[in-house]
Amino acid sequence: MTKRWVLKDAADNATIQQLSEQLNINPVLSSLLARRGVTNFDEAKYFFRPSHLHLHDPFLMQDMEKAIDRIEQAITNDEKILVYGDYDVDGTTAVALVYSFFKKIHQNIEYYIPDRYKEGYGISTAGIDYAAANGFSLIIALDCGIKSVDKIAYANNLGVDFIICDHHLPGEELPAAIAVLDPKRADCGYPYKELSGCGIGLKLIQAWSDKHDMPFEGVAEYFDLVAISIACDIVHITGENRVLAHLGLQKINENPCIGVKMLMQVAGRTGTYTISDVVFLLGPRINAAGRIDDAKHAVELLIACHEEAAKEKGDMINLRNTERKGHDQQITDEALGMIDNDEVMIARKSTVVFNENWHKGVIGIVASRLTEKYYRPTVVLTRSNGHVAGSARSVVGYDLYEALCGCSELLIQFGGHKYAAGLTMHPENVPAFIEKFEEVVSTTITEDLLVQQISIDAEIELKDIDAKFFRILSQFAPFGPENMSPVFLSKNVYVSGNAGLVGSNHIKMFIVQPGSASFSSIAFNQAELLPLLRPGVPFDVCYTIEENVWREQRSIQLNIKAIRLEISE
What we know:
Layout: E1 3-7, H1 13-23, H2 27-35, H3 41-48, H4 64-76, E2 80-85, H5 89-103, E3 109-112, H6 125-133, E4 136-142, H7 149-157, E5 161-165, E6 179-181, H8 197-211, H9 217-220, H10 223-232, H11 239-254, H12 258-267, H13 275-292, H14 296-302, H15 307-340, H16 343-347, E7 351-354, H17 363-374, E8 378-384, E9 387-393, H18 400-405, E10 413-416, E11 420-425, H19 430-444, E12 452-456, E13 458-459, H20 467-474, E14 488-502, E15 506-512, E16 519-523, E17 539-550, E18 553-564
Parallel strand pairs: 1-12, 2-3, 2-4, 4-5, 5-6, 7-8, 13-14, 16-18
Antiparallel strand pairs: 8-9, 9-11, 10-11, 14-15, 14-17, 15-16, 17-18
């Protein structure tokens, strides 16, 4: 697939020069810092040395006092508390965190995860009815609830109080809960707005701990769960999230809770975990519980106190993940076949595929795969509870939610954001939706958005990459949204020796420039370029720089994102 190479604008020269002098670092690294809002020595120290001392006062969050007061009242009166959360990674880690913390203080507490297929996302009438029927007078809702105005009104009529801990954007009206903790509230002065749902849960227990003069270690023991939520919910890894991700990865790698330790074992990955490892190895297994079976199993694993119980849950979740991968691969292959054998679909600027027998739990994953393959806004549809349910994904720069607004007359409901959404419709509306979605996309998307873009942070020469450069660059981690691993461009490089295939589709080679060392490089899924990569033939590359560990030997490796053989001057 052709990709657009776009070099980012340079940072302010005065700031770059000042940082280079104060920190004694390469100007390229100073430029990367400046783009991240780091402009002086003190800010650089904060950036490079994340500490729990950098966490904000939880009582800066609107309604935190009310939330703590209501929980104190419930514990004093021995009320039954229900911890309620969504079925994805963010929701289940949040429930595990808040439930485990308060279970040590108050025995009269349980948790509830809605059924993905029967109840759907967020706070459900069935969940409120369960609470009311079983004598729960307080629900702590995590990673959901900010738009549940009607549901909270229903709960209030039944005498069930709510504390909402959410991180999604509120609607025009806030629910009439006892407390609504959400930094995105217009009237909330909390200094960091991008916490995950589990991160809001952490602020709740941090507030309780601070008010009751408890040791901070009681909060820190849940950092691993927060790091998993940050990684898998794709929130910004900046500010407080970056601090929490850093501390959480430390805990994952040094002293994970029993449930996380078991997840790492069944994932079969040894060595140091990065954010990427959490996203691709731990997250899918936690999610698989809710996609294929019941997300309560994920919570049971994450709150496990004994290795035997954790191993049983870990093995079961791993099995569910294997099932999930089977469904995923089968549906992806079927969808690819539908598109590749249909000239009309190939020519479109959108992709919509429908099969009433596909497993609803994996259609979001399939939508992502199809978007990667064809690089255009994509919707995958299947039958569910008498309706047609869909999962949609977009390309960088195109507002998918707005496109669905243009099709709203054909939908029962839809929700989501710019790049991902869910929707339901009546089965008879599927043909009309396919045509309407294509009409909306084709009239609102620009041609350049249909070509994948690689954003390049800086052009450098290979000789710039030495041990000091890599050591400092590594401290920019943990990487993620708004703090991605920097992408570099080097022009007129050459293959040193011969390039070869690794697996069926990856190129392994050494590349060099005049005057530089030779760098081991891997180019994933670019095997079609192998015949063109010959000694003496120059080409341009863009890449990230990473550490490769092989048989306990560590070396710098270039992860090549794209190769361009039409040489730039």
